[in-house]
Amino acid sequence: VGAVAVPDPRLQRIADIVLPRRVVPSTMEFVDIAGLVEGASLGEGLGNRFLAHIRETQALAHVVRCFDNDKVAHVSGRIDPISDIEVVETELALADLETITRSLENAEKQAKSGDKDARERVECLSELQSGLDAGVAVRAMSLNDATCTLLRQFSLLTARPVLFVANVEESNIGGNTLSAAVEEYAAEHGAETVVLNAAVEAEIATLDPSERAEFLTELGLEEPGLNRIIRAGYRLLGLQSFFTADPKVCRAWTVRTGARAPAAAAVIHTDFERGFIRAQTIGYNDFVTLGGEVAARDAGKARDEGKEYVVTDGDVMLFKFNT
Questions:
Q1: Where are the beta strands (DSSP E) in 182-237?
Q2: Phi, psi (degrees; rounded to nearest 5) at 72
Q3: Is residue 7 within 8 Å of residue 230, measured between CB atoms?
Q4: Model-level pTM?
Q5: DSSP 50
Q6: For residue range 74-96, what is the model confidence (pLDDT) as tens digits?
Q7: Helix boundaries (H) for 60-80
Q8: Which of 98, 99, 228, 312 has a 20 to 30 Å separation from 284 between CA atoms?
């Protein structure tokens, strides 16, 4: 498990104005597991029992081999990223199928005793079982409201959005025919794709910030691939950032797009949501252009927003609440 800072230059620009003692970015947590091989559900390779480690994640990032190198063996003996994707998708579907089948068997037993709720669960679980048995990911199924509600009780792996990370050779760091095939597959399945070279990313991670920019320029890159992965993750999950700023600390926070002000307050502390009164809100552009909270307030750009306010990406917020 690794936590990385979410790159957002807006945070530093706010800090340059406020001059706080600390600057705290948002973080994104990654849970790394070994690759699945065909037959993992039957115990091949490392099996799939360790998939429990990623059942609490919100999205899946699948690193796909898109380079040819005789010195680096491939478990199936050929380089075919679409086949690799389909193998993993199948194994994840089989893991979900096992979960749903067990629940269906229990629901059927309860339904036989006249339990009305159990009969409804049988219908929903049967729908999920049929789809998974046909190799369809839950995220791709057209489900009714009752089944969607039932889904919340499970941590199904194929219900999560997917990001494909196409690992290409350094000589084609911008992409090749294999990564193009992955991008096409992703577009057809509503997924995101990021193209990078893992060896280069490992090297970037070891460099001082002062050296990093020069190294990226030499490669013809504007930023590390990790930054693009994080942004893709935000898009997949429907996330955005807001900021808090005072002389002690400037901080970025993550909230779902469309969240209202009390939900944003809860990200900081649940007491803020329970006792929410209002949120002083300044748009990021106004905060930076005018030079901070006082100037924005004097210019009439600081708004007092209530419980129904929908947070905008980049808002600089100060919450008022009752303890």
A1: 192-196
A2: -115, 105
A3: yes
A4: 0.85
A5: G
A6: 777 788 999 999 988 988 898 89
A7: none
A8: 228
